[in-house]
Amino acid sequence: MTSTAHSSDEVAALVDRYGLQRAGARLPLGTYTRQLWARRHFITEFSTASNAVGFSRSFLGQAWQLLTPLLNVAVYYLIFGVLLHTKRGVDNFIAFLTIGLFVFSFTSGSLTAGARAISGNLGLTRSLHFPRAVLPVSTTLTALQQLVSSMVIMVPVVLLTGEPLSLRWFLLIPAVGLQAAFSLGLAFLFARLGARVPDTSQMLPFITRVWMYTSGVMYSITEFTKGRPHWVKTVLEVNPGAVYVNVARNALLTNNPVHPYTWPLAIGWAVVVLGAGYLIFWQGEEEYGRV
Amino acid sequence: MSEANIAAVRASAEPTVVVDDVHLVYKIIGKSGKGGAPAALRRMILREPVPGMRKVHAVRGVSFTAYRGEAIGLIGPNGSGKSTLLRAIAGLMPPASGAIYTQGQPSLLGISAAMMSDMTGERNVVLGCLALGMKPSEIAERYEEICEFAGIGEFISLPMSTYSSGMGSRLRFAIAATRTHDILLIDEALATGDAQFRRRSEARIRELREQAGTVFLVSHGLGVVRQSCDRAIWLEEGKIVVDGEANAVVDAYEERHDPEALAERLAVLRGNATAHVEADQESAI
Known about the structure:
Chain A is mainly α and 291 residues long. Chain A is 69% helix and 1% strand. In chain A, helix 4 packs across helix 5 and helix 5 runs antiparallel to helix 9.
């Protein structure tokens, strides 16, 4: 029989001579990014489709997209506002809580969905060839679409509770933009972690819950750190969860001033986490779909 | 194709796939057979590796080179590593050791290509084509053609989870087969669907083969390998048993695994031969 096996020297010579490429080799960052951009239609279609699928098995369908955030606000208002009285020191607690919950759940939602971006789409990763970054980008986009649709509730709540419409509202655009960049970075990081350690999804609910309770979503950090050492307040306020919640509140609510360093922090967290997340995710490109 | 022909092809043609001493290892996370808390505790105390993590050594040291213009059949019993090897050539699974080099991006065309089962067939067509890197305008152009080829009628607007396995694989094949490919990897696609669809898909694969540089075909249907391949690689427990001219390799494989089929085929051939001889004699008389 004819054998076509070559020695490793011959292989090297062939590879060199015919310009062969290693199968599944990770592309250089620039080419990778261009390929990712080329799949932008896939990303938007995929995230819209998975958003629709999320509700397709319920009787009320898409209505849950509005009902879920509305019920969340009601439950949190009942528990924290009425029963635990965390509303002290807050002017307009309902609007304060609504913005806090919706904005924070965008970040925690992208984190959770990001962790399952690879591990939940193994069939797709194992059968088709595309830059894997497509998946965390899609899941983050789905979370962003949910945030945008929850604004249908957020804006009336803010207006009905007596907040005036003002030009400052336009600050919401950079606020959400920066938060989206930050959340995408997190999704990249946790997608790689979730692809390697399947237990990540089990751990995440606890992590996001602790994060939410320490981000001043249902209480005012200034109010609750009175009488504590100053560093406690600083640590809580520098945490990105609180940063993005606060810039959004600053845009929509009166009497919610932010520190001079809050906006720079919002930019800093977005740049650093997105940059690091993308790089770290790209480095693991070859290992996705293996387990 | 004879051995001499193969040698001629190789001398003139360029290599498109070089597989160099490749080992492929699956990690499977799942419950190990012996279970329960005591076993888990014992593993923890003895510091045994991650419980439930099992390794399957699917391919053990495979080397070969494929050339432009070749159609190669991969044959072997279930679990011999054929499909795994194909996935690795497609770059969808990194080798544990060794390396695979390819010219251009190979495309895997398999019925196992997963789709999103909660979504409708229509959405799957669009998503699948987008994932393959097609442009939206291109998809709009080919959409009708794809649906027609799949031939699943009104089911196209229902979620894929409601499809029979045959319909699902027809749609997947129709999507994957829309594009032309440099290196085409076909995984059991020919066994898909009913007789009518099989004829159509065979015709489509022939077309794709004419355009593709190199074709790999994994199939349990040995007849298909004889018909459409000029070279065959016989895998057994992750190792190459024989690599060579398709008919010779399939004969050897049949001799080992299905001697009755070989005997039958030979009997038919001999019968034909005798019949011819008799006919000749008759005409001579």
